[in-house]
Amino acid sequence: MRQNQGQPEPDKRTRRREVLQVRNGLTADDVQGHAAALARRALALPELAGARTVAAYVSVGSEPGTPALLDALRARGVRVLLPALLPDNDLAWGVYRGPDSLLPARHGGGRMTLLEPAGERLGPDAVTEADAVLLPGLSVDARGMRLGRGGGSYDRVLARLERARVRPALVVLLYDWEVVERVPEEPHDRPVDAVVTPSGVRRFGRPAPEA
C-alpha cells in the first residue's frame, strides 16, 4: 500500500484505470464470494444496525456486490433508498421494494446500463433523510478520502448533505486491495467515516455509535 518515495503521485484517471483493470479480471464466482462476506461485515456495523433509512446503490458488473446486503436491510425493516441517474448526473431516489422492483435504465447514449428502482421518484433531496449512506468507490486511503468513478454524482450527494446540515454515516464498500495509503484528491473531496471490505472495517476519525 505504500507508494515509492520519489515517485510522483498518480492522478485520478491513472488510479481509476488501475483499479478497473483488476476488477475486470474477477470472475462471477469471485464477485459473488466477496459479496457474501461484504454483506456480513456491513450488516454488523452499528451505523446500519440502528438505521431507519439507508441510502445505498445497486452494484453492477464487477463492483463489490450489494444485492444480498440490500435484501438483508429490507428484511430488517430498513427503508432502503436507491439512486436513479438524472441527465445532469445528479441522483434522484426511490424506495427499494425487492429485486423485482429494479428496472434496467440506459445512460450515456446507451453505453451504460444501471438497475434503478421502479415507482415514485422522491427527488435528489430524499438522501438527506438517510441515517447512513453507502457510497460506491474505487479506492479509499488512510485518511478516509474516496476515489470515485469521476462522474460527480456522489460529490453532489455529499454537497447536498452538507448544505442540509445533516450528518449521516458515510460508508464505502470496497475490495480489500482497494484500501490504499493515499489517493489523489481535489479541494471539493470529502472524507468518509468508514470503509467495509470482505475482511473487515476501517474507520476514519468519527467513532462508531454505541450499539
From TrEMBL:
<dbReference type="InterPro" id="IPR024185">
    <property type="entry name" value="FTHF_cligase-like_sf"/>
</dbReference>
<keyword id="KW-0547">Nucleotide-binding</keyword>
<keyword id="KW-0479">Metal-binding</keyword>
<keyword id="KW-0460">Magnesium</keyword>
<keyword id="KW-0436">Ligase</keyword>
<dbReference type="Pfam" id="PF01812">
    <property type="entry name" value="5-FTHF_cyc-lig"/>
</dbReference>
<dbReference type="InterPro" id="IPR037171">
    <property type="entry name" value="NagB/RpiA_transferase-like"/>
</dbReference>
<keyword id="KW-0067">ATP-binding</keyword>
<comment type="similarity">
    <text>Belongs to the 5-formyltetrahydrofolate cyclo-ligase family.</text>
</comment>
<dbReference type="GO" id="GO:0030272">
    <property type="term" value="F:5-formyltetrahydrofolate cyclo-ligase activity"/>
</dbReference>
<protein>
    <recommendedName>
        <fullName>5-formyltetrahydrofolate cyclo-ligase</fullName>
        <ecNumber>6.3.3.2</ecNumber>
    </recommendedName>
</protein>
<dbReference type="InterPro" id="IPR002698">
    <property type="entry name" value="FTHF_cligase"/>
</dbReference>
